[in-house]
Amino acid sequence: MTDRRSQPRYDVVGSLWGVLELNEEARVLNISATGTLVDSAFPCAVDSTQPVRLGIEGHDVTVDTRVRHVRPEPASTGSEPRFFLGLEFISPPLSVLQSIEQMSSNARTRTEADGSS
User: Fold this and answer.
1) Residue 36: what pLDDT?
2) Torsion, Cα of 95, 99, 104, 110 (10° steps)
3) Is there a contact between 26 and 40 (Cβ–Cβ < 8 Å)?
4) Is residue 48 included in any domain, yes or no?
5) Is the pTM here over 0.85, yes or no?
6) Is residue 62 part of a domain?
7) CATH number, domain at 55?
8) Residues forming a β-bridge with 55
């Protein structure tokens, strides 16, 4: 059988690192104007930059983030491991900041209404 690749391949001597991006869903646990905590099946390298796609008012918005901390989820022992990822937003779009502010405002309004009854 002949090699049908159109470009030559070269053996790598030593270490050569690459990046493999995986599109995996993660559950947002909390969010603020500066970042978010997510529950993920995969850990990420601390200080790495990761794109995160958020659903804002029916539209997907991609925000670049920096991984600030990674912790194993305590409840995941014995099952598939899960991780808490602390992600810091890097220059989030205005639409994301406005949506977070709206969520915060709605939460304050609900808390005040619950506390007054």
Assistant:
1) 94
2) 160
3) yes
4) yes
5) no
6) yes
7) 2.40.10.220
8) 60
Domains identified in the chain, total number: 1
pLDDT tens readout for residues 1-57: 566 677 877 777 888 777 666 788 899 999 999 999 999 998 999 999 999 998 888
What amino acid occupies position 42?
F
DSSP the chain: -----SS---PPPS------------EEEEE-SSEEEEEESS---TT-EEEEEEEETTEEEEEEEEEEEEEE-GGGTTSS--EEEEEEEES--HHHHHHHHHHHHHHHHHHHHHHH-
End-to-end CA distance of the chain: 79
Q: Which residues pair with 8 in a beta bridge?
A: none
Condensed to tens digits (0 to 9), the pLDDT of residues 50-72 reads 999 988 888 889 999 999 999 99
Q: Write down the residue that tokens 């991006």 correspond to.
A: 21
Domain assignment present for 2: no
